[in-house]
User: Fold this.
Amino acid sequence: MGKKTLIPEEKWEGLRHAMEEAAGTRKTSKAPGILPAAEGEVSLRKGGKKKKEKKEKKKGKKGKGKKKDGKKKKKGKG
Amino acid sequence: MRKITVINQKGGTGKTTTAINLGAAFSEMGREVLLVDLDPQAGLTESLGVETSGRPTVAEVLTREVEPREAFHTLPNLTVLPSSPVLAETEKRILRERPSDYPLALKDALAGLRGFDFVIVDCPPSLGALSLMGMVYSGSLLIPLQTQYMALNGLEKILGMVKTIREAGFPMEILGILPCMYDVRTSLSRQVEEHLRDTLRDKVFRTVIRQSISLAEAPARSKDVLSYQPGGRGAEDYRALAQEVLQHG
Assistant:
């Protein structure tokens, strides 16, 4: 009689892959935007900063009113 | 100074027991050891009988309100940076104040630390901000694992997080997976251990922490197991683990 296996083989295969990826011995497609850099210069939450920057940019554009003016002029021409 | 973070998001896997008793085993070998309790449940702090009322803890160290040494408690064989439930609020505060670099909070707070051969960090049973701080601080992870089926699911999650952190640019190594609460009488324990070694090979410690009543009793006496029952199975296993970690380099 064969040995009774309590844990399915797929479970171990998944673990093997996870360990290879964690140890960096398995090549995987990297998540875009997360680049290896010097310690202390990288954070896992870059999103917060980017959102802030985008908001500020938008505010700046609205304040100048360039787009609105431009659109009006175009309308006038047409 | 060697830094080790003991982590597993599952509760009751032997994290605190391992942090304390590995530290005690290093101390028995003549090494200076600092234990950092990074769990708001303060299990390590309480297990060693450290009283924190009215005194600073790791929470105040993380927010830089006090210098680390002001919060240290010195025991005969170990130095403890204790925790308290206040740490749960501190975690939220750090996330608010340092949204972009909170993982570096512990590393920054302990940056000037000198005088210890080993710093062992005990993480909470979650993969939240505090655990991330602990992982980034040491870059070297010791993962205690119960030799049971459900524990394997948790292990996959931790490994996934390690990958993410590494890809974010933080150096991170898995020092080893430590089979804990090993019951030689059950075929499940034997099978999990056997397969773990077949699958993850040198990432699994040769040492196995066997089930032992002394490991459960020691905290009730506010002691590590090496002080509580020096000749017992628990003490023997943690001495073996300390030797193995030293050999690992």
User: Anything to note?
Assistant: The radius of gyration of chain A is 26 Å. The interface with chain B takes residues 4-7, 11-12, 14-16, 18-19, 21-24, 28, 30-31, 34-46, 48-49 of chain A (CB under 8 Å). DSSP finds three helices and no strands in chain A.
